[in-house]
UniProtKB/TrEMBL annotation:
Annotated source species: marine sediment metagenome
Lineage, highest ranks first: unclassified sequences, metagenomes, ecological metagenomes
Designated name of the protein: Uncharacterized protein
Amino acid sequence: MTIQQVVLENWQRDADTYRNDLVAFGQGQWIVKDTGALIEFQPHQMDILTTMFTRGGALPSWAVYDRLTPEGQQAMDECPSGQFPWKTMIWSEPKKSGKSEIGGLVGLWATMSEPGVNEGFFIANDQEQSQGRGYARIGDHLNPSSPSYNPAIASFIRTRVRGSRAPTRIDFKAGDFIRAIPTDFAGESGANPTISVWDELWAYTRENLMRLWEEFTTPPTRPNPARFVTTYAGFRDESELLWTLYQRTVRHGVRIHKDLELYASKAGDMVAFWSHTPRMPWQTDEYYRLEKAQLRPPAYRRLHENKWTRSEAAFIDPEKWDALPRYQSPTPRQIEAIPVYVGGDASHKRDSTAGVAVGWHRDAYPFVVRYRIWRPEPDRPVIPEDTLGPWIEDINEQFLVKRIGCDPNHMETLLYRLQQKGLPVEEYTQSVDKLTSAADALYTFTKQGILVLPPKTPDLDAHVYAAMAKETPRGWRIMKDLARKHIDGAVALAMALALARQYGPQDVDSNVTFFFLGADDDGGWK
């Protein structure tokens, strides 16, 4: 029996089941082009698809239901009849995990199974311009010359599909259609999607793409509209849209599956499966060994570990920085007499200026005691003598300052004044040795996960994210990638940590204790 005969027989027997069971539809009708056989779901794929696409009122898979957390079970229980539990669904896994197959399957099934006349849209990423891989897979099912031709599905289609590339619109005999659109926003304002499938949302970085996403919000005129996203992780400094969705689900949402990395937003409108784990049989150790040898470390992390990186080689891994422990502020009496080390960095008047003071926790953890960043205004430049200078003097009054390191460039007057007042200042010149020592201190303490931060440091975080590493034959240094971004906070922190490491391990104070903020589900610190 050919595969075409199999799918026809399956349709005659199971058509009624397919409407409310995406997994059954896939197992009975979705032919993988590379094998010419029906798709064989991995266990995690069946769990995620069942959780995302079981309509309210339909009998759930009790085995899957039992693997959900109480929050996940509540979302399923309270789902209105005939609707999916969430309106926006994100599927993010490492490269070669079958996301394109899943995207094509979801778009076809939703368009065919929803009541009424439906509109399905496939929006390609900004690099492909027109047809994404998921849409192309649907075209393969309608092309008689394709190994994955499916006559059962083709019987519902009016559009003739010939050749290697499907037309940009596929019309059903009943009036439904599936359309592939480019990322050009113009002309899409009249869309009324039942389902929109988005490929590689990390690439949506330009303003017109943000507008396209906003235009395709789930319409209230549809009883059960949905958006489905398949994507890798993106770039922290560019992929703002995807980062916002990631924040709302993975970082600040609730985990809804006991075993899998499935998160729902607290607002209850979106869900994300965001996994770093390779689960497909072809994702072998040998495959990853070859990929690691060919790709730059940031590219490997993003593609094969599904971790956020920067568009250029970042100095500090954003996920490492975000995972650093943070403390609830110790009482002033505990820290007023501890030894601290201060780094100060200033640039020309149109750039920012920063000061950071660090000390040693009793468990030999360096921690940020105080920091301050001054940003210039168009009519009010930052003058180090009026900002950083008084701040350092205030730190000196509160704590036992052991060393102060400042770059003499742009701060000759300030250094002189502090020295005249008897403060332990030294010139932290931009020599290769000193810059390498500073960069290495910040990088090492962050990589080891032992640098302790205050509860909230949004401006310092931004400076660390913007910092790049430039390697030289003699060492490396911290630099910024764009003139409009600031890294002075990161530089000042690196100087302070270098001084603390050089002079201060013996200054660990046994009287300093912290209450750390709670650990998250993955064992990191918030």
